[in-house]
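Two entries, shown back to back:
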Amino acid sequence: MNMFIRSHPRFKIDAQKARATLRAARVVASDETDVRIEGTNAYHCVFHRKDAVVHQPDYSRAARVVSGCPIAI
């Protein structure tokens, strides 16, 4: 766990770069699948293009998942 905590700032920088790349894209592909988070049914949304991927887990399939995602325009 300590390794994940120490590496978080670096991953945050890369995640911001991926979101910026997707924001600039004319077309973004997306997909969703079921996932379990802490024993509860949830959804895993993926937004991607050839050079960037953003994973967005959430307990809901509501539009707020996409509109609340940092890549939404």
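entry 2 starts here
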Amino acid sequence: MNSYDVAIIGSGPGGYVAAIRCAQLGMKTAIIEKYATLGGTCLNVGCIPSKALLSSSHHYEEATKHFEEHGIEIPGDIKVNLEKMIGRKQTVVDQTTGGIDFLMKKNKIDVYEGLGSFIDATHIKIEGKDAGEIEAKNTIIATGSKPSNLPFIALDKERIITSTEALKLKEIPTHMIVIGGGVIGLELGQVYYRLGSQVSVIEYQDRILPTMDAGLSKELNKVFKKAKCKMMMSHKVQSVERVGDEVIVKAENKKGEVVEFKGDYCLISVGRRPYTDGLNAKAAGVNINDRGQVEVNAHLQTTTSNIYAIGDVIKGAMLAHKAEEEGVFVAETIAGQKPHIDYNLIPGVVYTWPEVAAVGKTEEELKEAGIAYKAGQFPFRALGRARASGDIDGFVKILADKTTDEVLGVHMIGARCADLIAEAVTAMEFRASAEDISRMSHAHPTFAEAIKEAALAATDDRALHV
């Protein structure tokens, strides 16, 4: 039986990053993955493939709707080759997961293919290709999450689908009904409306992206409506039924009326649930709460001190970069170091176009907490760089403490916000004030100037370009 200092169950961003950091710190490390490829949901059927399709569909939309205004004329019809687009997506996935294979070999991490389950607190059974048992002084649970569903919906994975199936469709839907106005539903909804599908989004809450700042939700809702997507808020889905190649969705609106929607595909995107199936956690004394999450303390230890858990399987936002930070945190904790994570400063991003990104507190959270604040906002359309590229939708909003001027939250929607948010995270990590940001030189012309201008707006309302 092989023995290890650390064994990691699950090879998503949290798991494989934890494995690399453990190996860097001199620990003999193993990683167990039940699928044939490493990388978990993110690399195989989540973050990476969805961004590949978002990129491809964005190119198509630019070619069909915007090239002409730039003086680019393409003779003949521009067509979508969905099979080739899906094939490119898979190539990107294969290259990325192959990169994780390389990193495991480089760091001398043993990889076991199979389902890992606890025999006891220090022994793990592996069922599958590399069947057997291993011993581990410490174990990190990084088994991730799976798409959630509503109890009355029967997924057939053909017409009534999850995000996994939406990434490999054989045809462009005529009408895709999306149940859930969160990140996944909006990103994949945008992919297919760009390719020519009619898209209808049905959301139970009164706005899309209900956990983000209300201003961001409102702005992105405008973008989707401008693209002729049907956006139904405050609708409670009652039934989803397939009849032949048609899907019929019935929902109750805020007036109490039952309305009906018909499409050829229905994407169920109502969130994700922690995945612990087959883990046999009880055998190791690991508690799982009634929400399916592995219980952990501030050190990410489970109820068994030598077993840790990270990522989607524990409380908090289900984000790949959160899982990565937790993976490093646990590795360094096991090594006797004193790492730290500030969960308030883990950014959230939606990869629609315009992109949406945020870090820190929303206005709603500050009001609820009774914290006096000031807000500065700057529109993208006032930027020379935005007008030059034609990306004028969106804004940057900075929230700062009314007394100390410390930045408490940054919320943005616009071109390249997924990258711009890093400036806000950096500033907030060093407890910058709005005036600090306003006095930093930002290159011109750039999208980043919107952050400086929003900081100026939050500092005595002195934005320069509005």
